[in-house]
Amino acid sequence: MTRPPTAAQRRIIEAAEPVTGRLAGTETQLAALVKRGLAFRHPRPPHDHFLTPAGHRIRETAALLPEDAPAADTPAPARAPAEAGVFAARVGGEEAAAAGPARVREVHSAWQGLLELRRMTSPGGVTDRPCGWERTHLVQAAALALEAAGHRPAGADARDGGYRVRATPQPEAVAVHEPDPEALRSCAATLEKAGWQAGEHTDPRTRQRYLLASPRRA
């Protein structure tokens, strides 16, 4: 099995920019991460280094040993994103989620970073459709698009209203629930503008309307 990253490499991975995975370190350190498949060097100037999907998985699941622990093939228990210091879009239903100008700035920065990730990894540098990271993080990606556009995530009490993004049995689709019909249609417009396909459906059990959204490919 692949050896876990060294302590120095763990620090570089954990310090990567949210969403984009842009890395900072010496050329030797970054080259070592590239060699292990945890980072790549962007072909266009200024030739910055970014986490690969494997590098993102290591950071997001916090499958990293404590610095004082011996190297081993068994990863440490996963930590919650907030504990790992990783940005997390609000999918709806969070307890006592903080709000205010600081959160707005954080979300805006994450969305701009995601657009940059699209530009760097999409053919022709287009930013009008989801990138590979979004296709493997559907719930988080859709929630970020909604939160960045100013939509309100639902609180712990579903009766308060707001959106909720949830995974579905379909491999490339998420469900977006919003009790207010007008707000639901607004969510659909936001997702379509962000490069998703979104259509309204009716839950056969509850008769409530919801969106089924998937990343657009072309």
Verbal overview:
With 218 residues, the chain is of the alpha+beta class. The chain folds into two domains: 7-84, no CATH class; 101-215, no CATH class. The protein contains eight helices and six strands, in the order ααββαααααββαββ. It has helices at 7-14, 27-35, 53-61, 81-84, 101-121, 132-136, 138-148, 181-193; strands at 39-41, 49-51, 164-167, 174-177, 196-202, 209-215. The strands form two sheets. The chain has a four-stranded antiparallel β-sheet with strand order 3-4-6-5, covered by helices on one side. Helix 5 crosses helix 7. The protein is elongated, with a radius of gyration of 19 Å. The chain starts with 6 loop residues before the first helix and ends with a strand. Mean pLDDT is 81; it is low at 62-85. Residues 195-218 are annotated as: Disordered.
Draw up the topology in text.
Blueprint: H1 7-14, H2 27-35, E1 39-41, E2 49-51, H3 53-61, H4 81-84, H5 101-121, H6 132-136, H7 138-148, E3 164-167, E4 174-177, H8 181-193, E5 196-202, E6 209-215
Antiparallel strand pairs: 1-2, 3-4, 4-6, 5-6
Helix pairs in contact: 5-7
Could you provide a short overview of the structure?
By secondary structure, this protein is of the alpha+beta class. It has helices at 7-14, 27-35, 53-61, 81-84, 101-121, 132-136, 138-148, 181-193; strands spanning 39-41, 49-51, 164-167, 174-177, 196-202, 209-215.
